[in-house]
């Protein structure tokens, strides 16, 4: 029996509609958390450094993403109390444990994007007019 077929430690089962672990998946399953968390894995970054590292994210969306990740204990915000403001973001221990899984997912996507593109093209050629 695989982890998804049965309950995990503590009786959690993401396949169960009522399981609170689904909220954890929803938190990290979005496009931006999937990119921001691994970007913070090497160490603390300032806001502008994150904007440069995670190409395509807007300042507004980055702020919202960081706030939600901090609210859920995955990211820590450190305000150095200086002028001009110096704020850094880093992963908490919980966030670091998640980043290992997400980095593996990133490497999978980098290795298999061509196969996915080819599968789409094959499907479209076979089933679309």
From TrEMBL:
Keywords: DNA-binding, Transcription, Transcription regulation. It comes from Acidovorax soli. Pfam families: HxlR. Residues 19-117 form the HTH hxlR-type domain. The keyword Transcription applies. GO terms for molecular function: DNA binding. The keyword Hydrolase does not apply. PANTHER family: HTH-TYPE TRANSCRIPTIONAL REGULATOR YODB (PTHR33204:SF37), TRANSCRIPTIONAL REGULATOR, MARR FAMILY (PTHR33204). This is DNA-binding HxlR family transcriptional regulator.
């Amino acid at each position: 029996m695989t982890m998804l077929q049965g309950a995990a430690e503590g009786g959690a089962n993401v396949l169960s509609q009522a399981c609170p672990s689904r909220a954890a998946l929803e938190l990290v399953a979005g496009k931006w958390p999937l990119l921001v968390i691994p970007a913070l894995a090497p160490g603390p970054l300032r806001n502008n450094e994150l904007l440069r590292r995670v190409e395509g994210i807007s300042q507004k969306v980055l702020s919202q993403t960081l706030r939600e990740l901090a609210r859920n204990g995955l990211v820590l915000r450190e305000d150095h109390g200086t002028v001009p403001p110096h704020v850094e973001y880093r992963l908490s221990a919980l966030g670091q444990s998640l980043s290992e899984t997400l980095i593996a997912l990133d490497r999978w996507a980098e290795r298999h994007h061509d196969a996915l593109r080819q599968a789409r093209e094959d499907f479209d050629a076979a089933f679309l007019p």
